[in-house]
Amino acid sequence: MNHAGVAMMNNRQLAFAEHQVKYEPPVDEMDTPCMRFSVNLWKNDRLDYVELICLLPNGFLLGLRVNPATTIQMVKAEMVNQAKQMPLSYVIKDACEYQVYGISTFNIEPYTDETKRLSEVQPYFGLLTLGDRADTTTISSDYELTKMVSGMIGQSFDHHRTQGTPEMDDFRLFMTQMCDNIELERSIYTWQQRLLYEHPLRLADSTKMPELIRERHQTKTFLIVVKNENDQSTFTLSVNEQDTPFSLTESTLQKMNRSQMKMNDRAADYILKVSGRDEYLLGDYPLIQFLYIQETLSDSAVPNVVLQSVYRLESYINHHNEQAMVPKRPPPKKQPALLPKTPSSLWDMGNFFQLTLHSISNVNYDKARAFRVGVHLGLFHGEHKLCSQRTTDSPNGNFNTFLFNDQVIDFDIQMRNLPRMTRLCIVIFEVTKMSRSKKSSNNKDSGLKDVSYNKNPLAWVNTTLFDYKDTLRTGRQTLYTWTYADDIQSDEVFHPLGTIEPNPRKEGCALVDITFHSSGTGNVRYPSEEVVLQYAADRSWRDNQLQQQQAEPEKPLKELKDLLSNYTGLDKIYEMVDQDRNAIWERRNDIMQELPEELSILLHCVYWKERDDVADIWYLLKQWPLISIERSLELLDYAYPDPAVRRFAIRCLHFLKDEDLLLYLLQLVQAIKHESYLESDLVVFLLERALRNQRIGHYFFWHLRSEMQTPSMQTRFGLLLEVYLKGCKHHVAPLRKQLHVLEKLKQGSQIAKLGSKEKVKTMLQDFLRDQRNSGVFQNIQNPLNPSFRCSGVTPDKCKVMDSKMRPLWVVFENADMNSNDVHIIFKNGDDLRQDMLTLQMLRVMDQLWKRDGMDFRMNIYNCISMEQRLGMIEVVPHAETIANIQKEKGMFSATAAFKKGSLYSWLKDHNKPPDKLNMAINEFTLSCAGYCVATYVLGVADRHSDNIMVKRNGQLFHIDFGHILGHFKEKFGVRRERVPFVLTHDFVYVINKGCNDREAKEFCHFQELCERAFLVLRKHGCLILSLFSMMISTGLPELSSENDLNYLRETLVLDYTEEKAREHFRAKFSEALANSWKTSLNWASHNFSKNNKP
């Protein structure tokens, strides 16, 4: 950029007045709002004019009075035109050779998109500069990307991004190198490979038709509809399950030729796309292996595909990649480090661990009640305490600061025995004479003899003893604490599962000033993996020699199996007696060779505060056979912080298929919170899979971004988002469009709260029609499912729903011609994370049942949390709530909920032929069984007639999962819901095909289905518990501690035999049936008080 004019400005101040462009408005417009040089220039949304100050290449200043809707291109043209009328006009070049620059967040920002309006770019103070385009062509692309990425991550990230630490810098360096390598691979992709990256194939494991589908299709052939993209003509073909996409294309072209369409092209010139979505049937796979085909046949529907020209698709893919912003950035530079002294090994340190406590300050305590403030200190490995805690009270204090006179705190653990992932946990507490408050800790740890005294925790902080380079922390440090959430119900003193990140809001939090002691000279490091393994190998050799000398008889394997059976399949939280712990640990080699799936039991036998045990388990894990995905996931929750254990788990997960990874992605992202450092095997694994599959990347982005407003996650998740977006530039544009849609819908949701339902409906539709808004909705991917592409919004079909938060019912037009519209519900004000978790668990259960040969016709809709208390829900078409069905059939009477025939009558209305009605009843029976068992196991509460729905084809499903894990609502101390699950008399009436006999064979079959479904879930109880355990760190009010998992343990009865578990469920089934009248009574009351019919 030409800055020569900067030095000339002081000498040419008169030029501003002399050459200022005067736009003389009509007399009646002279009083219209106009803003001049001001920091609040763009805060007024109703400006008619703004005054710009422009620095020209000839050094002159130019004043322009323009409308905020003026484009950058028009402003640039006027700047060049005026410059040519000034002195030094000979230095002015054509407008195409210049770039307009503005000031944004104290940076000079090039406006590369000249179609944008001034109101969109909002230059700071209205200052603009006209500079040479050629000077910044390379830089601007990278700058634009950096600015764009920061904006997409959110306003909370920029501060963390600029305040780099060595760990953050090294993380960026390592991840950038990995991303660049993957990007280099993508740069040489063929168009087919790029297509599969952006729209990955969804394939089943088997190449044969699943038995569950074969039950519905007795033959090996099925129909498929193929539409010609060019003229929209359609052809119905009968295909064999082993036919491939290529053979289907050949058959279609032959049929077209017979129809005199003269299709002389080769089959290789075409590709098959699923109608209505960006999903392709490609490759040498049987058609039945594609999940779209299986899903459609399962619904007794006919698959619809579109025949597309390869050349048109190739041109689109290539153009899309050319449009992506891929700046050629220089390789990252690592700062040269000073050569350190040779570090000492931690394992050479026999002294006990110590630190010095200096002071705590800025403590917010109850000055009226508290007579003492103190500190608890403890060392933890995961949730386990490594040694006895230390407690000290402040001898003196001054207002909010308390001094401890440089008190040395000794811990009864030798430094050589400290595990690699040891955490120091600190709690600041106050001592009061009052009764224990909601946040009081348990007095068993207080050390107070008088039980009338209570220690109330005020703030906590955790930090690792080792840094990310394995070096023991030394020197004086200030720790910034977190306050206890009021909704956390826990009697635990410490919070070891909490974040190790310091509180970024440093001004308002309590501070702990400590010094980590140094040992000897130089750094102290944890031994490298090679050293640990060699140490273990030497121990193993000595043990083998000793065993050979003693010649002990080989212990039978049955004895080991019997011992493990006491814990196999049980929740890992169950206490293990020391005798069993030692016996299992002695047989560790036998477990590795014969029972490798029981690794988690063995890990609970490790004494992590003994370096010999740690070395032995590291040595074993190097040789351990790979275990199942279910057992691998268990090793990634907070109970297993050891790096070797987590590395082994990731080694097993490398074989996880993309579709299965998507199923567990929610938990895997949450598991990142349990990592002690920015870089970890889990982070590298997830990032690499997201960079190689854009569908995974889509959900990876939203799962991370939805928690960017959580202070403890802003640094970690913000850095991950930055790395992903910069490493996957082709994905930036689609995600950015979705964010723009999100902002517009947020504005729409504010409109929805301004008046009556009908009034705001009209206001919302007008808002969506506005040209300034409608363009945002064009050519976007559906955030709920990126396979669906939308060409725009349909304002006339959009409305405001009648509930407290006024959610929006938004209808998008499908980008595929003649395809169904895309309906979503946009919620602003409701926390959808719990809904998202419950729906994901329903998908897991559905997969478990299908693997066991049962399809319960679950209708699990999509739901995504996008920001705090903001997200989207998929609309299930052709469905109605039980309440509306009862009102429709009961003529809106108060007794509608008691009329057992209303639901059956409604199904008959929508399924006229008897065979179609029988199919609908079968769908209802299967889905009702699935949801009865699932809602019972998950403890889904607040079940009423407005959150249970039925599709016209008979499928029942539940919605709105605001209360789970047995958190049932109460009124006046009485629990509203007193049944294990919903099984009302009208449900039984449908299952029995119009009769109420509970001994009918149909109902007996239904009960048998429920029992089988329950036993399958119980068989996989450890997986269900593990997935919920991994979500404890989410911050959900109903899943905040281990105690919340007790409900799952009670419903799954993992300590029962299978027969006893079956009897237990039968008792619950009978209870639900016997008390169904209570549910009907609740529903009648609900129906009478509400009318949610749209």
Structure description:
With 1094 residues, the protein is of the alpha+beta class. Among the domains are: 129 residues, Phosphatidylinositol 3-kinase Catalytic Subunit, Chain A, domain 1 (Ubiquitin-like (UB roll), Roll); 113 residues, Ubiquitin-like (UB roll), CATH 3.10.20; 174 residues, C2 domain (Immunoglobulin-like); 128 residues, Serine Threonine Protein Phosphatase 5, Tetratricopeptide repeat, CATH 1.25.40.70; 213 residues, Orthogonal Bundle (Phosphatidylinositol 3-kinase Catalytic Subunit, Chain A, Domain 5). The protein has 36 helices and 36 strands. The strands form eight sheets. Strands 25, 26, 27, 28, 29, 30 and 31 form a seven-stranded antiparallel β-sheet that branches. Strands 1, 2, 3, 4, 5 and 6 form a six-stranded mixed β-sheet that branches. Strands 14, 15, 16, 19, 20 and 22 form a six-stranded antiparallel β-sheet that branches. A hairpin with a 4-residue loop joins strand 33 and strand 34. Helix 6 runs parallel beside helix 21 and helix 32 packs across helix 35. The longest helix is centred in the C-terminal third of the chain and has 25 residues. The N terminus is likely disordered. Keywords: ATP-binding, Kinase, Nucleotide-binding, Transferase. Belongs to the PI3/PI4-kinase family.
